[in-house]
Amino acid sequence: MASFQAFLKKLKYPLLGFFAVPLLWSVAGAQPSDVLLTKVRQLAYTDSVRLVALFKDLHTHPELGFMEVRTAEIVSKELKSLGYQVYSGIGKTGVVGILKNGDGPIVMFRGDMDALPVKETTGLVYASTATVKLPDGNEVPTMHACGHDAHVTWLLGIAKLMKSIQQEWQGTLVLVAQPAEEPIMGARAMREDSTFIKHVPLPDYLLAMHTGPFPTGMVMNLAGTRMAGTDQLDVTFRGIGGHGSSPQTTKDPIIMASEAILQYQTVISRSNDPQTPAVLTVGSVQAGQDNNVIPASALVKINFRWLKPETRKLLFDGVSRIDSGIAVSNGLPMGLYPIMKKKGYSFPVVNDSALVSKVNSTLQKVVKKGSLITSGFPTAMGSEDFHHLVLDNKKSVYDFIFVGTAPLDMVLAARKEGKAVPFSNHNGNYMVDLAGIPWGVQIGADALLGVLKVKQSNP
């Protein structure tokens, strides 16, 4: 979220203009009506005690990608109780709830469920102390360090709110609780599932929202390329193991991996055009067990970020070339050359201009003046996969909205310290302002009403 930090420093609007709980900002004579939007706000905040309790429960019980069994059960039970047609176990743990409500657009709204293998350091009373055992046997701490607990809470709050005002709108609402956004695999897993293909209607519009470490009450919704494409890949360097005292009898994969990690950065610094955004990050190195044993293999986990397909190819080609060169320089036979395994991937998020305009025409009525950002914010090098729910469709129209969920006092304190934001995504200090829970439900419901067929309007 470094892009947020750079942007906030340039804000024309003083942070004192933001409020932890935003006030209604209405414009007469537009759809949906001011009366309906006021009702939405009242319903969202009336439900806040239940929603905050739900959020705290989800935060205390985080689950990693494709392991979201408990979270999925909560979502499924709630949607069934509200009368949605529910399908579970999609893409392993995904849930879809469908509410058909007469003629009108089919609108899909996604909330992601998974947490991260990060140890929480917030000190909150409801902080996560959970750990999870990975398939490789390692046990790691886990927490919601990217706000997905809020996303699930928003989804369920929106489900109840939209059901309660069912007489006010027409169309079909499709709510998607998606697994495994963090490994960038969950959306495609759902989209390729036979249950999804058979039972979930193709949407005219897809919406999703994400928490951000900027003031509660502030919303960012911009057209065009908003987030980068990404690839996750593993490279296994293979060698010949042996005793640490006799390196001449081995082919040391740790040395090979170390050489590769340093050389990978030359792909960015010497092969990529400096004016073309690209990131190559090594997030994990795993090798060996003992001090005096040279292992037979070393695993390097790599992440790419890119905006153009030719940049993506350059990154893959560069890593492959470096791996092969290291194998040659270490005298390895072809049978021991490094193995590249491609895992999750996602294409850049490109918000549809017409849909963004439609949604913003509604949001500008409820977001305080100066707190709805519709231009001037740079493309983030973070990535998302929600749009892969619809990318293979003939019609692929989507909008990804950022909702501020940082307490104003913490933002102001951070600014005094020279920081743009008080905490960061994917960090143990990440938190969500509890005032942002009903606020997110309100914004999500307002966005949906902006694209569904609304029955009532201002006189």
What does this structure look like?
With 459 residues, the protein is α+β, with helices and mostly antiparallel strands. It folds into two domains: 2-227 and 348-454, Zn peptidases (Aminopeptidase), CATH 3.40.630.10; 229-345, Alpha-Beta Plaits, CATH 3.30.70.360. Helix content is 33%, strand content 24%. The chain has helices at 2-9, 34-46, 48-60, 69-81, 148-164, 186-191, 194-199, 253-271, 309-329, 353-363, 408-416, 436-449, and strands at residues 85-90, 94-101, 106-112, 131-133, 139-141, 169-178, 205-215, 219-220, 224-227, 229-238, 242-243, 278-287, 293-294, 297-306, 339-346, 349-351, 372-373, 398-406, 453-454. Strands 1, 2, 3, 6, 7, 8, 17, 18 and 19 form a nine-stranded mixed β-sheet that branches. Strand 1 and strand 2 form a beta hairpin. Helix 2 (34-46) runs antiparallel to helix 12 (436-449), helix 3 (48-60) packs antiparallel against helix 5 (148-164) and helix 4 (69-81) packs parallel to helix 5 (148-164). The longest helix has 21 residues, at 309-329. The radius of gyration is 24 Å and the shape is elongated. It holds the Pfam family M20_dimer. InterPro entries: Amidohydrolase (IPR017439), Bact_exopeptidase_dim_dom (IPR036264), Peptidase_M20 (IPR002933), Peptidase_M20_dimer (IPR011650). Residues 232-313 form the Peptidase M20 dimerisation domain.
